[in-house]
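Reference record
================
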Amino acid sequence: MPSNRPDIRPQLGLRRIINVSGTMTSLGSSIVVPEAVQMVDGVLTEFVEINELHRRACATIAGSTGAEAGCITASCSAGITISAAGCMTGADLSRIEQLPDATGMKDEVLIQAGHMVYYGAPIEQAIRLTGAKVVPVGQSTFVRPYHLAGSITERTAAAVYVISHHAVQYGQIDFVEFCAICRARGVPVIVDAASEYDLRGFLAKGADLVAYSAHKFLGGPTAGIVAGRKDLVRAAFLQNYGIGRGMKVGKESIAGTIAALEAWGKRDHAAVRAREGGYLKLWVERLATVPGLRPSIVPDPTDNPLDRLKLVVAAAESGTTAWALAAALARAEPPIIVRDHEVEHGHFYLDPCNLHPGEAEVVADQIAAVAAAIRGQPSPDLADLRRHQYEALLAWPDRLP
């Protein structure tokens, strides 16, 4: 494995994994951009007035997104929580201290049934932390405008719209129409755009608040960004004096997010796309020669400007299954962590966005080698693999064999 760069992971007793899964929180999300690393390093040894630093971040977020204002919190999930809370309390500190007791407040938050996703935790829980009641709209694969309009009552505080590959990608209300219906009834729309590259489009099309992850596509430190209407951003920010206190963010994450946003605006996105395209081309050429593996390049399902490699594992020809190959790659040396949320359908994905120089070649070599090594071996049962993952989680901090 090529490595001319310092690598602190062995010092911490951690494996030197290669991440082709994507900007996943469970893997540390992303490679933090140098500008953010420098900013974090510089601010860590200094005292700052946190609310003034937040005010500086507000201006940067507004400039990057076209929003009236913005604030930073612990994560995008925290951003959803404080956004919903802000829609319930406004800037009333008495009500902010009252939550999660929502007595006397609008306390219902609407979300399409097909958007009730799990991203490491249920999105409904991020909403319920405020004391609000989650009101599903429509059915998981069939939602129409009348479902949304009929769900709005005098108790509706906000509506949440999820942009994610986890959400159902058909049978949902179009984003613009969703916003229009809510706006006509005075209901603020909160968008979960954790991994979305579009910093301006959702607000321009009618959203009132949008929550992003700073630590995913932006390459910042762990944090969440809330952008939108000034009154609602203010109300969300003020949750730091209530339920948002446990979601507070440190000076390093605020300053690092400022740097990451500024770097995003200067990034040569075409060059990044060309580099990632080179990795994908390499993988297609190399893996097409491996028996039973069928690589193809596919676009991002939510229209981010990126592609991934879809690797179909034809069991009859490869002598193994997609889940067996993914699991074996994760155990290999070096470990290759693939995007495996659809392995039961006989394929997984390789995401090129988090690679260090030289790692794309290692990925191709390792997949070919591991596929050959396990060819013809009995494939583990997928249910057993998932059961073991569940049991290992419950055993933490002990390690299962």
